[in-house]
Write a structure and sequence with these properties.
This protein is of the alpha/beta class and 419 residues long. The protein has 14 helices and 25 strands. An eight-stranded parallel beta sheet has the order 1-10-8-6-2-3-4-5. It has an eight-stranded mixed beta sheet with strand order 14-13-12-11-15-20-24-25, sandwiched between helices. A three-stranded mixed beta sheet has the order 17-16-23, with helices on one face. A hairpin with a 2-residue loop joins strand 24 and strand 25.
């Protein structure tokens, strides 16, 4: 039987030495987290775990108490100090490996989630955000749910029976939102180059940011495309409504758009709740390379910080500082390479620091890291063109990548590679 309690009462349920998993993304239970901020003693000796989304989730669980610790899969700016001090423990895992990690934990004492109010059948929807929650619900000893009246009940999302929630906290607050991305002329050129690699009928995976949104905006003349992605934004909604994305050519989930969570604004979340063809699935499905490889003509599109002349990709470190995490890029890239006629694309601007630094570098140095091996990349795209790397020799790869670097860096890159 579910017990209705206050946020402060919920915070007092956490026991010293316990392991507590916090839902991230737009499912972040902010009322419960605010209570932990206001009741610091509740976090004493607690190890918090969460898959927080940079730019969306800004709570710092390790700050709830001097003895609290935090295990995370992304390191963003707010976590740098605690990461350096050791209070934040960073796990460099692919998204597909996080659920196996959860399953290997000795115990998950408590999980903090957010749901919609129960429907007429007593089911609380996880809303437009699923990712890891279904796996957590089967492992946690105690489920504490923030029942948010603003969380839409999506027909394509998993749910939890209200009676299976141990403790519930009522809330009413808007979901996290992101502003619209504005494409620069540079970004639009990158998008046009990427779109030239996409055929009608392909199934796409894409991320979040200026480049993915610009790519989606440039797809308006395509037809019969499908979605199988870890997330979607409202740029995808426009293409679903206009008939660009239909999913009709997908070998599995035909006619359906598969994603782990949606990220946009309130209007977009309501759209997601009412879109019957949009289906939310956990990471164990969205990032499973066996599922991805079964989708013919699957195209993964991901961004990066740097690419070196060997084709190695750094997607998570700048100047020896962790700025993100491993994420799910390699899951989709490897799924794409196993897909019939599948392709993997890395898209990035050619320069950084207002044009003073080349993102195409001779070799990833000691201040960066290899997020994606050179053996896994088919195409690298900048505003200057497309480098096709698949089945190329080392020298041919370097030549192709130099040709899409910013012109002012090409001679230097060629000289560095010659050494």
């Amino acid at each position: 039987m579910t017990k209705l309690i206050s946020p402060i009462e919920a915070s007092e349920l956490l026991a010293p030495g316990s392991t507590v998993f916090i839902q991230g993304g737009i499912g972040e239970p902010t009322s419960l987290l605010n209570a932990l901020v206001c009741n610091p003693s509740a976090g004493k000796n607690v190890n918090f775990i969460s898959v927080m989304v940079p730019g969306v989730n800004n709570y710092r669980p390790e700050s709830f108490h001097d003895t609290a610790t935090f295990s995370t899969f992304f390191v963003f700016s707010e976590l740098h100090a605690s990461f350096q001090s050791g209070k934040t423990r960073f796990l460099p895992l692919h998204y597909s490996e996080i659920i196996p990690y959860i399953e290997l934990l000795p115990t998950i004492d408590t999980v903090l989630i957010q749901t919609s109010p129960p429907d007429s059948n007593g089911q609380c929807s996880l809303g437009p955000t699923v990712d890891f929650v279904p796996a957590l619900l089967t492992r946690a000893n105690t489920v504490i749910a923030e029942i948010n009246s603003a969380m839409p009940h999506t027909s394509g999302s998993p749910s939890i029976a209200y009676r299976d929630i141990h403790y519930a906290v009522e809330a009413c607050h808007s979901l996290p939102s992101i502003a619209d991305y504005k494409a620069s002329p540079e970004t639009e050129r990158i998008a046009r180059n990427v779109v030239s690699l996409i055929d009608d009928g392909d199934t796409l995976q894409f991320g979040i940011g200026n480049i993915p949104d610009a790519i989606l905006s440039a797809l308006s003349s395509h037809r019969g495309l499908g979605i199988h992605s870890g997330m979607i934004t409202k740029a995808a909604a426009t293409l679903i409504d206009s008939g660009v994305f239909t999913g009709e050519n997908k070998a599995i989930d035909s006619g359906e758009h598969i994603t782990g969570f949606a990220l946009g604004d309130e209007r977009f979340y309501q759209w997601a709740a009412n879109c019957k063809s949009l289906k939310f699935r956990p990471v164990s499905y969205t990032h499973d390379i066996r599922i991805i490889s079964a989708l013919k003509n699957f195209v993964s599109i991901n961004s990066a910080v740097q690419v070196d002349l060997f084709g190695q990709v750094n997607a998570e470190m700048v100047n020896n500082r962790q700025i993100s995490g491993t994420g799910g890029a390699l899951d989709f890239i490897r799924g794409a390479r196993l897909s019939h006629n599948g392709r993997s694309i890395i898209a990035l601007p050619a320069t950084a620091a207002k044009g003073s630094q080349s993102r195409i570098t001779a070799r990833l140095g000691d201040q960066s890291i290899v997020s994606i091996p050179r053996t896994d990349v088919d195409y690298v795209v900048t505003e200057y063109g497309i480098a096709s790397l698949a089945y190329k020799s080392t020298a041919e790869r370097a030549e192709a990548l130099i040709n899409i670097a910013a012109p002012q860096f090409r001679d230097e890159l060629a000289a560095q590679f010659a050494k």
